[in-house]
Amino acid sequence: MNNDHIQSRLDKLTQTLCQQACELLNKPGADVTLGELIDIFIANSLDKEPLYHRLLRLDAARCQLELGLYGLCADCEEEIEQQVLNLDITAQRCDSCQSRYDNEHRHELLRDH
Predict the structure, then answer these.
(1) CA-angle at 54, arms to 56 and 26, nearest 5°
(2) I need a labelling partner for 68 at 20 to 30 A (CA). Which of 4, 60, 99, 111 fits?
């Protein structure tokens, strides 16, 4: 995947998630940025909302692309497997590190759901 294709996919996801966030926040048609939406979620104590976490991952992926770090695991810094990125364009960890992370944070995941 080249950067233009990744950027295009991230832009489409940004549009979709921002629209969902505006609907959730009763701000239909609001013209707000991704960063502003994240701030609104925090200000309204919506940090347990699954959409909030999707917005954070999207923001991280966009920043990584700008920095030339897109597709690198946040933990081991190795390349994230292409099949993982194909399934989730905002993936932050390779399969191995994601499994380790899920196992280490299992109690948090269970508590939050």
Answers:
(1) 95
(2) 99
What's this model's pTM, rounded to 2 decimal places? 0.86
pLDDT, mean of residues 11-37: 89
Question: Helix, strand or coil for residue 68?
Answer: coil
Backbone angles phi, psi at 68, to 5 degrees: 80, 20
- Domain positions in the chain are 3-112
The CATH T-level fold of domain 3-112 is: Four Helix Bundle (Hemerythrin (Met), subunit A) (1.20.120)
Give the Cα separation of 34 and 31 in Å (integer). Answer: 10
SS (H, E, C) 70-113: CCECCCCCCECCHHHHHHCCCCCCCHHHHHHHHHHCHHHHHHHC
Instruction: Tell me, rounded to whole angstroms, the distance of Cα 74 from its chain centroid.
Output: 13
Compute the C-alpha angle 88/63/30, nearest 5°: 85
Share the mean pLDDT of the chain. 91
